[in-house]
Structure formats: structure tokens, C-alpha cells
Amino acid sequence: VLSAAIFTASTNDTMGRVLGTLSATDADVTFRNFSFSIIRGNCSYFSVGSSTGDVILSQSLRNLTRHTVCALTGQVRNGEDTASQSQPAVILILIEALDPNPNAPRFPESIYNVSTPESTSVNTTIVQVSATDPDSGENGEIRYSLLQNSSDTHFEVDPVSGAVELVQQLDFEAGYVVISLVIVAQDQAQPVFWRKSTETQVIVHVTNVNDNRPELSLVRFLDLLATTPANVTITTANASDADFPDGGGLEFSLLPVGQYSLTLMPAVFAIDSENGEIRTLVDLSAYESRNISLIVFVNETDYPHRFDFKYLDIVIQPLAVASSSIISTSSLTSASATTILAPKELGSARMTSDVSGTACVGSGGARMVVADADVRELVEIIEDDATASGWMTMSRYLKSKRCG
Question: Is pTM beyond 0.70 here?
Fold first, then answer.
């Protein structure tokens, strides 16, 4: 007689494990040479030792993901006597689906905050993340990756070391100020569906570096009347710098060039170092019929102190032609009112032998006086700046001494 039996197993059991031993009795004989067998069942994971009755795990249970009951039918006979074959008996094996990979990788930090300047070189490691997994073998072997829905392309992570490297140049001014990355650590358990993973966040704070030159915008020529009083804003220098979008960090200054010395110019014109307004410090009557050339600078107050500059040529009209003024004092604060063109009428006493009579420009009706000592220089400047509206036309008129 074969006794019914119930055994237990788990998905963590290794092949060859003996779950238990079947029990049989035969009251008719004193010599017992039992032979055990499984004649049918609903699973093939187990076998029985024919002479011992041991129920043995013969196939891996790792692919089982839920609890399972194996119902087997066993039989025993005594020796070679088929007549002594027992009635079948039920053998139940309860298989518990245990997690063969019980632990997921763990990061010591849920968030890594990292700062790096926008000038950081490509291929630089900005941080190295590291996770641990107490499981053994493949279950404890970790690989790192960036979460696939991370849209940023500036960084990559080394799958083995967890080093986060810069692979694309940063640019603070382009809006890359804070970049958030999600790093995944996954063990290498087999089969794949037993693998476990965890995530950590790396927040990269990109710091600004002064790597852009300021750009200065300023009119090239300016025509003023000798009657212009002191403390009048004649024009404004505008500057921009991508490293200082709020307008701070820039400083304006003036430098006279040509025949006027450094000691003279501060007494005539000044520039506001913060907003770039250029104004008169005295009335201009003492400087009539003169050309004054300035260099306007804008420089950064922070290292490396990059700068830009523009030339500003100012023509002071003589008092004799003030009645034909072309720019009123009230309009001098507007940069758009300072376009330099030619006068409609020039007194012959103020013309050189090369240029006399009438010179005209039909561009907006604005006029300026050209003194005799400056005509040739002015014509050359006009030709150099031929892209500005009307200047090439004025040069042509001045040379041909006729009106179109």
C-alpha cells in the first residue's frame, strides 16, 4: 500500500533537492523490495527514486511566478511481482513561488545636486552615482542608464561605473540653467522578468560664465549747433551683453581722439557710465566750426573685462548758420534725429576750392554744415560708411558740386 503524501517546494529550490520520501507497506510478505514510480500528473518538475521513494526536484521552478499545486499519482510494487502492484496513491506537491531576486538596487541619495559652469569641457564627468544590491550573482550585478524619456541630450551615463559625463557643450544663455536627469540602476537577474530597478534624480545647475563680448550701438556722426547749451543729452550709447541680460555689469566711458586732448574733452562732453547718455557739460559756442571725434567704450565690470567701442564724430555748426539749424535742442535726445546729411546751402566763404556752391541730398531733408578744413576727411568717412542711408549720395553730391 502506497501512502498518500504532501510535500512543499519553492521557486528558490535548486534542482536535485529531495522534498521527502514516499512510504509503502505490504503486510503479506516479510521481504520488501519496493519499487516506486509516478504514473501520471499535471506537472513534470519532479521525479521519484524507484528504490528509495525520494521525491526529487528534477527541473528548475524559477519560471513559476505564482503558487502552484502539482497533483501526482504514485504507485509501488514489491520486487518484480507485478501482482503485488499497489493501488495508486495521490502525491500532492505545493510549490510556493518565492522571489528569486528579493532585493532591488538602492542609491544612497534620492537626489544628487550638482553645479557645473557652462564652460565645462565635453567628456568631463560631473558626478558619479553608485547603487548597491545585496543579492548574489547576476541578481546583484548592476547596470546604469538614463531614463528613456529624459529629453536632454547633454549627458550620458556609463552603464558600468555610473559616471555621468557631459557629451554636448552647455550654454547658459541658451536657457540651459537647470537640467534634470533620471538615472536607472537595474540588476541583471535571469530571466529578464525577475530583474529589479530603482531610480535617482541628478539635478545639474549650470552656472554662468562671462564668455560673450558686449555689443555697442551708437550713431556714427552727430551734428550740433554752437548754440547748444550745457547739460543737454545729445545721444545715447546702447549696449547689450548675453552674459548680463538685465543690463548690469557694463560700464560706459569716453575717450577723445584727434586734435583735442584728454584734458579738454571732459570739460565739453561726458557719458553716464551706467546708462550711456552722452551730454554737454558746457555750451558749445566756444567750439563752433569744429569737428570733435570721440571713442565711446563699453566694458564689462567682471573678468575678463571684454569691451566694444564705436567712433562718434561731432560737428559743431557755426553760429552764422544757426538760423538754418537742422536739429533742435529738444530733438537731440533722440538717436533717430541725428542722421548726418548735406546742407542745402553753404556759404562760399566756408567751402574749400574743391567744394563750393550748393550740395544737396534728398534724404529726409536733413542738413549739416561742412567746414572747409573738414570736407575731404568727411567725404572719405562717408564713403567708408556707404551702407548708411544717404551717405554715398552725399559723397557723390559733394564731389560733383551739383544738385539732383
Answer: no
Does residue 117 have a pLDDT over 50? Answer: yes
CA distances from 179 to 141, 201, 359, 387 (A): 29, 10, 62, 44
Q: Which residues touch 342 (CB under 8 Å, ≥6 apart)? A: 359, 360, 361, 367, 368, 370, 394, 397, 398
Tell whether the torsion through CA atoms of 318, 319, 322 and 327 is positive or negative.
positive
Does residue 247 surpass a pLDDT of 80? no
Contact 138, 189 (CB under 8 A): yes
Strands 233-236 and 68-78: unpaired
CA gap 387, 117 in Å, rounded: 40
Distance CA 283, CA 234 (A): 12
Lowest mean pLDDT among 99-113, 120-134, 183-197, 296-310: 296-310
Residue with cell string 530571466: 191
